[in-house]
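Holo prediction. Input below; ligand is NDP.
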Amino acid sequence: ENAATEQTIVLVTGGSGLVGKAIQRVVEEEIPDDEQWIFCSSKDADLCNLEETRALFEKHRPTHVIHLAAMVGGLFHNLRNNLEFFRKNMAMNDNVLLACHELGVKKVVSCLSTCIFPDKTTYPISETMVHNGPPHPSNFGYSYAKRMVDVLNHAYNADHGRLFTSVVPCNVFGPHDNFNIENGHVLPGLMHKVYLAQKEGKPLEVWGTGNPLRQFIYSYDLARLMVWALRSYTEVEPLILATDEADEISIGKAAILIVNAFGFRGHVVFDTSQPDGQYKKTASNAKLRKYLPDFKFTPIERGIQETVDWFLHNYEQARK
Ligand code: NDP
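Structure of the complex:
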């Protein structure tokens, strides 16, 4: 029995994105001798294509996989592209999990999202509610494709005994995010808008009322939790990775934190002709807290300040 000395090869799909870059930084702080980590992007393989996916997995022969690759976008990008969000994410998830099964990968951790839960629901949302009712219509394509990851995980387990599982992050933000105003998520989009408003001496225009409530997790906190999940979480059932419910804040309040991080002195106006999206998606992290009662999340003020500083220092190369 030489299991203890067997090399662990972790392949991270979507390794060039917001979450992938954070995981890379976290594991590089301390890689155990028996672990090798490989971070892939769409340049290594188009995971919508089964043959390219198989070739990538044959090349690296991973023992463990963190599957992050996805077509991801904010409310406004989703509203216009539900078909593409559904088809691309369905294809990527099916191809990646099939390749993992064919190679006998020991463990896969894939990513769902708290925005895929039923629109009409009781709060707080918990892991058991993934399939309880239709998602918010704004992003039904993305949501149903993500929900099918959980179906695949259970089917691979039922039919083949595989340990393919998923985690369910709330809204993520941090360095390497997509700061595109039209297509990105709310925090990076607002950061880019404040940057431009400051440069042009114009007011900051926030889309929507600013009232919706969200939980935001700093990408490095999520990264630490996902690395823990890969090593230590052994259920097929999803695990919500969210900040505490008390840390939920309104989009208006988040906008003010961003304004403060930039030292922006202009006016802030809310364009209420724009849609708000779902009012809230409050998720419970009680299950996570059972496993890791003492985990400390980075205060959102600090995460926002670090992200704004990163954006300012990397403006030229940042996705925008
Ligand atoms: P990003 O958009 O930052 O990164 C997406 C990654 O997927 C990139 O590495 C990209 O590669 C890769 N990718 C996209 N399309 C393909 C493809 N066809 N073939 C191969 N690779 C592809 O996403 P995030 O880091 O924000 O998201 C990571 C995961 O977390 C996703 O599964 C997402 O659904 C989930 N999640 C994200 C949340 C958030 O708020 N951001 C919230 C909850 C869940 P390339 O760089 O080459 O384009």
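Residues 14-20, 41-43, 46-48, 68-72, 92, 111, 113, 169, 171-172, 178, 185 surround NDP (CB under 6 Å). That is the main takeaway for now.
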